[in-house]
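Course exercise 7: structure representation. Students receive a sequence record and must write out the corresponding structure in C-alpha cell form. The form below is the worked example handed out in class, using PABS domain-containing protein (288 residues). Read each field label carefully; the graders check that inputs and outputs are placed in the correct fields and that the protein name is recorded exactly as given.

STUDENT ID: A-19
EXERCISE PROTEIN: PABS domain-containing protein
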Amino acid sequence: MASSKGDLAGRVRVDDGPDGLALIVDETVASLSSKETNRSALVWDALALPVLATTERPSVLILGLGGGTAARALRRLRPEAQIVGVELDAEVIRLAKKHFDLDALKVEVIHQDALEFLRKDRRQFDLILDDVFVGYARSIHKPRWLPRPGFRLAKRRLKEGGVLVSNALAEAKYLQRGMQELFPGLLRLRVPDFENQILVAGQLAALEILEQASSKQLNGIKVERPGSVGTLLPRSITDSRWLRLARLAVSLTAAALCRTRFRRSETIHRCCGGESTWTCHGNPTGIP
Ligand SMILES: C[S@@+](CC[C@H](N)C(=O)[O-])C[C@H]1O[C@@H](n2cnc3c(N)ncnc32)[C@H](O)[C@@H]1O
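STUDENT ANSWER:
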C-alpha cells in the first residue's frame, strides 16, 4: 500500500508506493524511482532512448527535470553524458535532491521557466527532451508555448544533426505536426500500458539508428513511423477553458468516487507517464 511522507503533503509530495518512490505533482506521477531492476521499460526509458542516436558523450537538455527519472535512464545509456535539467518548481527540485538522489546524477540543475531558458541560454545540445507538463490530474497538458514557439526555439538550441524529443498525451497530434514542420524525420515511441506518445524528430540518419536499436535496448518499447497529421482544430479551441473545466470535473468526480470506495485516497492519480486507467492504491472499504 502506498504511504505519503508526512511533511510533504501538498501539490508536490513523495509517495512510497508498490512501484517504488513516486514524486507526485498535482496528483500526477511525475517521476518514479522503481524498485525493480529487471522490469520492462517505462515511459521515462522511452524518453531517454533517443540518446542512442547521438554520440558517446552527448550534451543533453531536459526541459521539466522533475525528480530526474529520465535523467537516470539517460545516465544508464550514456554514463558520460553532460546533462542540463531545467525545472520551474523549487519544491520539485528540493524533493528530487532529498528523495531521488538527484545530486548523484551529476545534472546541472537550473531553476527556471523552460521557455525563458530556451529564449536566453545560448548553449547547443545533441539532444533536447521536452517533458514539461502543467495542469491537474486528468487535465494534465502541455504548456501553451508548445508546439509554438517552443519547438522552434528548441531547434535553435540543437547542434547540427541533433534530436528533439517530446512526451505527448492528449496534444500529440499538435506536437507531431509542430515537429514535422521543423524536421525532415519523425518517429513515435510507444510503451506498453502507457498512453504517452514519445515523439522523436531529427535528421533521417539519426532516426534510422533508433529504428535499428536491438530488442534488448528497446526492452518492449515500440518504434513507429507515424503518417502526416490531417486537419486539426486550432489548439486554442481544443484547449479552451470549458474543455479544461470539463476534464477537471471528470477528475474530481472520479477521485470522489474512488474516495467513497477506498479507505486511502491520496494516491489516486494518473501518471504523467500516462497510465490509461485510474489507480486507487488501498483496500476497498470493509476488506481487511
Ligand atoms: C512529467 S514531470 C517531469 C518528469 C521528469 N522529466 C522525470 O524524468 O522525472 C513535468 C515537470 O515539468 C515541470 N514544469 C512545468 N512547467 C514548467 C516550465 N514552464 N518550465 C520548466 N519546468 C516546468 C513540472 O514542475 C514538473 O516537474
